Write the structure tokens for this entry.
Amino acid sequence: MIIKIRVDKYKSESLRKMAEITLDRLNRTDMEKYPSNTLLDYYDAIHKLMEALALSEGVKIKGEGAHQELIDYVAEKYGFNEKIRSFLQQMRDYRNKISYEGFMINKNYIALNRKLILEVIDKLFEKLE
């Protein structure tokens, strides 16, 4: 559910900084050795950046399906194409499977998708500036 709130620049900035910290820590990790944890970290950073964007506009998304709705909202608002929107939804699905079912990501997933993940992250940081 999308809710209009007051713009929260402070929380938006805090989420941006947390995403930076997560990515810094991730860059010090053997991503091939820990592909599931790597996906969790990438998704967490992307989610924080998307939430930071929404808060900077005075939008809060909460309730059942909030992550899915946030991805759709940011994709539409900031011009992410359908390929990226679908990819982010796939990451969300994998994140849920890892967190709730113990699903293991193949190490090739990170290698094959790292470039796209980093492009999305760069675009989100760019939109926050």
